[in-house]
Amino acid sequence: MATMASWVKTHSRQLKIGGVLGLAFALVIGAGVYRLIDQVTNTATGVVRGYLQALAQGNSARALSFAESPPDDTSLLTDEVLAASNQRMPLTDIEVSDPDRTGTVAVTYRRGGELVNTAFVTVEEGSKWRMRTVAAEVDLQASYPGFALIVNGVPVPSRSIVVFPGSYQVRIDSEYLQVDGGEFLVKNESGLKLNTSIRLSAAGVAGFREAAKAKLEACRGQRSLEAFGRKLAPFVHKPAGVKVKTETIRWELIGGAEALDRLEPTILDPSGLMAAPTRVLLRTGLQTTDGRSYDFRTGITTVYGGLATDGFKVIFE
Predict the structure, then answer these.
(1) Residue 30, pLDDT above cutoff 70
(2) Domain boundaries, the chain
């Protein structure tokens, strides 16, 4: 019975030949792949078609490989972000025309059910062609201090982003806020400025109202003329040397309490300041050290506030 050693000795020549043939086959296949890549970049049309096919396949590395110079910011130029884009609006039916004299290549494709007619600019580098740029700069316009914007599931540090052509959805990292105009389609590598805005969600409106009601109750319990803020504090005309007896100060709600349940706050500016008009009537009673009693009436006309990570903060005017 032949041993393993004798079998190897007998068949060593065949093994060597098989190994050489396998290596040769791998080299041929590899060379074919490189020739295929070379063929893609041999023409402007081939580069644009290869680039769009890479986007359709969700292959961010290949899409970037067609760039004359890769973008500095590649945080959103990833397979993950492309996958979200293609899941929402797949890229299909790619048709690429011959370039014009400037190297601009007209294309048509579909994003979901939408037909896109656009063009991409190519440049010649020796015997190869490249895309002038493979990504677009997008200004999201809207933001809210302290809360990250999220693009296709990825948090972004600022409202200025760089993305591949595709379908995008912007939201903000708070249940109390929402982005209006946050769904958009980037068709080519040209820049884009969105018409987006941040507003309170239904949960945010409810949260603002609850914060206002809680603030009202807290202020009513204070023995201070400025319990509701300096602007609503009554001015007591009293003789020199006479003081207000703090323990006698009483704040009373005399009308409009239900108005706080109907507050409709809006965000006024990029600082995140919110405001809601209202009408709440208050009475202040107090005594001074000379034995006199005073009665004042005032009213809350606006509730101002803002949102932080620990909730809403409001003040009255």
Answers:
(1) no
(2) 44-200, 202-316
- Retrieve residue 57's tokens: 């396949």
Are 94 and 53 in contact, with CB atoms under 8 Å apart?
Answer: yes
Per the confidence metrics, is the pTM higher than 0.70?
yes
168-172 average pLDDT score = 97
Does domain 202-316 fall into CATH 3.10.129? Answer: no
Reported as half-sphere exposure (CB side, CA atoms, 13 A), residue 6 has a value of 3
- The alpha carbon torsion through 107, 110, 114, 117 (nearest 10 deg) reads 0
* Cβ atoms 55, 91 nearer than 8 A: yes
CATH number of 44-200: 3.10.450
Q: Do domains 44-200 and 202-316 have the same CATH topology?
A: yes
> What pLDDT, on the 0 to 100 scale, is given for residue 145?
95
Distance CA 311, CA 205 (A): 12
Calculate mean pLDDT across residues 236-253.
93
Residue predicted with more confidence, 14 or 208 = 208
CA trace torsion 74, 79, 80, 83 (10° rounding): 130
Residue-wise burial string across 193-212, b where 16 or more C-beta atoms lie within 10 A, e elsewhere: ebebebbbeeebbebbbbbb
- Look at the block and give the residue holding tokens 């393993």: 4
